[in-house]
């Protein structure tokens, strides 16, 4: 606590009545971001060690688990870290068959609903996204293990694009103002930085990939000029 006070002077004071230290108005987070998402995640994952009287009531949706093999994931993580190639079997959504693939993975990605790995695919001669639950069987090390295509060669991964969103213009002026407040928009818009390779997932996550027939169900849309600019990445 003394070390933290050195980092953030006057950040908390002792409440003699309750016999606890409390944060003051001058408190600023030093070891965390201070976001509500971070706080709720920490609280939810630590409720099991807290006294029942101090628990915060939090509920979240239970999403279906994916069939991910921990053994294969360990191999993929090692290949990402060491910039190596893998000879691995992948279930093709197009054919429904297991296909042998030689890939050079570089990053694990969670899109909010599932995990995939970004990797160079030697069959397609391009960087692709591979869903972790579709990897099966044993992993073989390639004769030439060192990856010749790494993250620095992934142009769409290294390209950052701003996704500009705005309230659905079909909403009333009062409704649009509420949406602006919800998303902390400035001048009626919000620019969200996103890797070009992940744009399609962001659009799906924010329900922006298709227009809802009811504006109240849509709420936000991509600004028209931005929509045209990101077209190559929406359909990749």
From TrEMBL:
PROSITE patterns: WYL. Residues 160-223 form the DNA-binding transcriptional repressor CapW C-terminal dimerisation domain. Residues 73-136 form the WYL domain. Pfam families: BrxR_CTD (PF26107), WYL (PF13280). InterPro entries: CapW_CTD (IPR059020), CBASS_pafABC_assoc_protein (IPR051534), WYL_dom (IPR026881). This is WYL domain-containing protein.
């Amino acid at each position: 606590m003394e070390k933290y006070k050195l980092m953030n002077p006057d950040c908390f004071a002792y409440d003699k009545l309750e016999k606890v230290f409390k944060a003051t108005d001058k408190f600023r987070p030093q070891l965390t971001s201070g976001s509500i998402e971070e706080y709720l995640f920490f609280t939810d994952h630590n409720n099991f060690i807290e006294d029942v009287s101090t628990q915060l009531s939090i509920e979240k949706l239970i999403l279906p688990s994916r069939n991910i093999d921990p053994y294969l994931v360990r191999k993929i993580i090692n290949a990402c870290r060491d910039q190596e190639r893998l000879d691995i079997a992948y279930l093709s959504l197009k054919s429904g068959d297991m296909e042998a693939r030689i890939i050079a993975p570089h990053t694990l990605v969670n899109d909010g609903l599932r995990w995939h790995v970004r990797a160079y695919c030697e069959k397609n001669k391009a960087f692709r996204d591979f869903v972790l639950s579709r990897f099966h069987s044993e992993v073989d090390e390639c004769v030439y293990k060192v990856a010749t295509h790494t993250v620095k060669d992934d142009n769409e991964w290294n390209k950052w694009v701003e996704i500009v969103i705005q309230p659905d213009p079909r909403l009333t002026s009062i409704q649009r103002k509420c949406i602006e407040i919800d998303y902390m928009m400035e001048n009626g818009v919000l620019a969200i930085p996103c890797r070009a390779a992940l744009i399609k997932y962001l659009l799906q996550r924010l329900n922006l990939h298709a227009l809802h027939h009811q504006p109240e169900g849509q709420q936000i849309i991509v600004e028209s000029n931005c929509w045209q600019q990101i077209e190559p990445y929406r359909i990749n």
